[in-house]
Automatic annotation (TrEMBL):
The keyword Mitochondrion applies. It comes from Cutaneotrichosporon spelunceum. This is Mitochondrial chaperone BCS1. Signal peptide: none annotated. Residues 1-24 are annotated as: Disordered. Residues 288-419 form the AAA+ ATPase domain. Residues 66-257 form the BCS1 N-terminal domain. It is found in: Mitochondrion inner membrane. InterPro entries: AAA+_ATPase (IPR003593), AAA_lid_BCS1 (IPR057495), ATPase_AAA_core (IPR003959), ATPase_AAA_CS (IPR003960), BCS1_N (IPR014851), Mitochondrial_chaperone_BCS1 (IPR050747), P-loop_NTPase (IPR027417). GO terms for biological process: mitochondrial respiratory chain complex III assembly.
Amino acid sequence: MFGATRKPPPRQADTPAVPAASAEQAVQADGVSVPEITQATVAAEPSLIDKIMEQNPYFSAGAGLMGLGVALTALRTVSKLGATAARRRLLITLEMTSKDKSYPWFLEWMAEQSAQARAVAPSDRGVIGALRGRVTQLPSHELAVETSVKQHENGSSDAVFNLVPGPGTHYFSYHGHWFQVKRERDSKLMDLHSGTPWETLTLTGLSSSRTVLPSLLDEARALAERGSVGKTVVYTAWGVDWRPFGKPRSRREMGSVVLAAGVAERIERDIRAFLGRGKWYAERGIPYRRGYMLYGPPGSGKTSFIQALAGSIGYNICLMNLAERGLTDDKLNHLLGLVPDRSIILLEDVDSAFTRRVQTSEDGYKSAVTFSGLLNALDGVASSEERIIFMTTNHADRLDPALIRPGRVDMKELLDDAHGEQACRLYTKFYGQRADENAPEDGESPDPLLRSEHLSADEIATLGQEVGEIVDRARTDGRSVSMASLQGHFIRSGARESIAGVDALCVVRPS
């Protein structure tokens, strides 16, 4: 037993490999072909889905597939609701329409950010510059242009092209908060007053950005108003809204309008006293409104004085022509109730609002504003508070006493044709303050105001007194000249040659 040796297991004979090309002729192994072995292996290991569908009888009837579809639909709905809830909790959206005042302010602010981004080095632009904090706005390829023309005193003009974000998607950061801006334009909706398509700006940021939105809008407003600091903005009625007419104008000096002695000072003193009495009016239950009537012949400086007065007190002007076609009582009342802050309302040719006037070449087209509608707009129940109204007319005799009674018109001033003292001051202003260093020494300049006539201050004063005497003598003869006519004459003539033509300008005014 102990001497027996262990018999090694029998060695299996090496099976030669069967080429792929002769698979069909392969030798039978245990009576099963190679394709049958593969099918048996696959059939022996079915997937989980196959087990469910084969072993569950409900799938055979189609109920399982319907349930699977319902489950997938429910999963999709839940995911949408979850995304919506997350968006509401994590994101904040601010919408601005083209009708809102902040709409142009924000576009101008975005244009300023784009200009600052273009001012940095090329290596600090784009996404890399934004990550480094060098720029606050990603470059955009969807732009729009706003063209403005600046007119110079010499008659030339420059065109300024402002590239603002166009319709599309834009990205910027403000105080470390990133925002997405979508500017959308609906070509099917139009603003009936301006004829422009309806537009919408949508700002989207994280919910933590809520606190910076008021600061962002304040900065946009300050940037928009920076161009009007020290200037006078003239608004005109555009439909039922007030809109700036052209670019802000440089403030006109009070001394640039020469009125009769004491008139300008008296009106300015009264309006400054009114601006400081808001509490006084409220304590006495008096409507905080002030009305002024400036009347006189054409060319006496009524509108020019109002423009200079607005610049002196830092107010803007809302210009309204009561003879405008399409102006009605309701529209007038609506406009007077929505006047921009710190603005003077200027009603020119107020007598033209009366419907009893007919269409003539002198007065223009008949207005749809009625007399009662004008009175209600001035001091009716719906009239606004904190309001300053200036009315002008060339025909004071046509005004109804009810229109110019106290409460509607608190101060009336006549701006008449030139008196001798006015003509003297205007002459001295034109020729006495000329910069002689800019005048040619040869005296041959085609511009009479630039000719060097080598006149001393005493000579200018003497010639000015002579002009005043000519105007006063003409007034005693029943002839007069407007300040506008004298100003035009001085522009066309030199200091000495203008004296001879003053008397010819004095004519008899038609009654």
